[in-house]
Amino acid sequence: MSEAVADIGLIGLAVMGQNLVLNMNDKGFTVAVYNRTVEKVDNFLANEAKGTKVVGAHSIKELAAKLKKPRKVIMLVKAGDAVDSFIKQCMENGFEPGDILIDGGNSHYPDSIRRTKELEAKGFLFVGSGVSGGEEGARYGPSLMPGGSTAAWPAIKEIFQKTAAQAYGEPCCDWVGETGAGHYVKMVHNGIEYGDMQVIAEAYDILKRGLGLHEDEIATIFDKWNKGVLDSFLIDITTNILRFKDDDGEPLVTKILDSAGQKGTGKWTAIAALDAGTPVTLIGEAVFARCLSSIKSERVRASKVISGPLKEPFRGDKQQFIDDLEQALYASKIISYTQGFMLMRETAKEMKWNLNYAGIARMWRGGCIIKSVFLKDITAAYERTPNLESLLFDDFFNKAVHKAQPGWRRVVAQSALWGIPTPAFSTALAFFDGYRSEVVSANILQAQRDYFGAHTFRVLPGKENSRLPAGQDVHINWTGRGGNVSASSYNA
């Protein structure tokens, strides 16, 4: 009989799994490891984990025997069926009610909701945890976003918070919420990541095609930005990318095919936003920009037959325009995070999750792909007002966007005149202008819907009369030929 010596187990010794094990070992925890291809266990112990306290297991049953109770195991395997398969194997091979099964993969949050309910019904505890930071984050401190069975948190809190990145003296990990909340927050994180990457790419395009700057010059600008309000992991690595040369001295980035891939988490965020009826427009445009980039051959054909504006040399103040671009990037990021937190707020209401928004921003301040100085300000905003309706209602961000507005508008206008696409910058500005508008053009939409489909409309307060009663769904016979029966009302 194996002795129960391990504080936590891990299934799945791919790159992320191996690095997370070594990280937990460094923090003083004994980790038991298992992999479906058991040779990987022996190879790991003989090489990367040599000289550590890591212990190996050649079966799930052996893994269970080596874990202290309540048993805790992290699965870092491919999302989907593989997770369900390992959960089943654990439950059938030595794991007992009260034990904690943790999915650390990129699972879709509805699966985590289902798994939490199914496992709790059998007496087990389930945690679906977002893990962000890639290979380096896993090794030296990721951002961890656990949610699921709340009763599991006290048993895993110390391990998770010591393993996580530390920023401003605090762990980039806290309990997110019930059922699928952990993976939901990770999904929104990934969507925001799509948006951040897109606005940076658009800034590069404007500097490259608009101002005609070389990658070395653009890198210098990004380097300067990285010392101010835009200080972030993504700006930092983009600076390094722009300076990286191929063997012939040319910037390597100029040789990369402009067709972007995606694994689906940004798309999940956009779909979730549509389902919730929340205007998360910047992330949506970032996803569509990748889709547009992927039809490269069609774009090549279009470039030969569809003309745009004639490229005029920039005659304005170049430094002023670069400063404007910095403000446009900052303002667009504020809008993206505003939308992301709006989406989390709406879903939390629907799911009855008690999300800690300051805690979520705190978790993202280090260890993850979107880590930035900016998140310190978001944390402070939600600490000031835990139930903050919108970041734009916070005094700090309200002033920041107000200051950025003139430059932001000049950048979007100039880019349109150049014919340079700025889907993220433009949609952020359109959202901002729509959000701050007391009246928008949806009255026309409602009239059209009622005209062709009898979908009804409501009357503006103060405009009621005998024909247009207050607080009721009204249908008008617009042509004199239609009837007075209205269609059922629903939200699309």
UniProtKB/TrEMBL annotation:
Residues holding substrate: N106, S132, G133, G134, H189, N190, Y194, K263, R290, R449, H455
GO terms for MF: NADP binding; phosphogluconate dehydrogenase (decarboxylating) activity
Organism domain of life: Eukaryota
Keyword Phosphoprotein: no
Record's catalysed reaction(s): 6-phospho-D-gluconate + NADP(+) = D-ribulose 5-phosphate + CO2 + NADPH
Uppermost EC category: oxidoreductase
Pathway it works in: Carbohydrate degradation; pentose phosphate pathway; D-ribulose 5-phosphate from D-glucose 6-phosphate (oxidative stage): step 3/3
A Pfam family hit: 6PGD
Entry's EC annotation: 1.1.1.44
Active site: K186 (proton acceptor), E193 (proton donor)
Sites where the protein binds NADP(+): G12, L13, A14, V15, M16, G17, N35, R36, T37, V77, K78, A79, N106
Domain 6-phosphogluconate dehydrogenase C-terminal: 182-479
Keyword vocabulary terms for this entry: Gluconate utilization, NADP, Oxidoreductase, Pentose shunt
SUPFAM superfamilies from the UniProt entry: 6-phosphogluconate dehydrogenase C-terminal domain-like, NAD(P)-binding Rossmann-fold domains
Annotated function: Catalyzes the oxidative decarboxylation of 6-phosphogluconate to ribulose 5-phosphate and CO(2), with concomitant reduction of NADP to NADPH.
Quaternary structure and partners: Homodimer.
Protein name: 6-phosphogluconate dehydrogenase, decarboxylating
